[in-house]
Design goal:
This protein has helices spanning 2-34, 38-71. The chain is an all-alpha fold.
């Protein structure tokens, strides 16, 4: 269970890392429409390459998380057996002195 939660946290972190460059790329593309610039074009290309690397890393992390989740095994809970009843004289809670 802990491994699955840890894997899910890593996946969420990867998704956050991916969302940031995607937003920046879209912002630069909107800026590019207003004015053509070689620098902006190079920045977009570089950021798209970084985004592809992040997506690949996230995919690998997701595969690792699924593998870790598959390896976890469920353990049957322990159930106590009822204690055997005494065969001798039963002791009552009220004393008969």
């Amino acid at each position: 269970m802990a491994q699955a939660a840890n894997a899910q946290a890593m996946l969420s972190d990867s998704e956050a890392w991916i969302a940031s460059p995607e937003l920046a790329i879209e912002k630069l593309k909107r800026e590019l429409r207003g004015k053509r610039s070689e620098r902006t074009t190079r920045l977009i290309d570089q950021m798209e390459l970084q985004l592809e690397e992040l997506v690949m890393a996230a995919t690998e992390d997701e595969a690792a998380a699924q593998a870790a989740a598959a390896k976890t095994s469920s353990v049957r809970s322990f159930t106590r057996k009822r204690p055997p009843e005494s065969r001798g004289r039963k002791i009552s809670s009220a004393s008969t002195w």
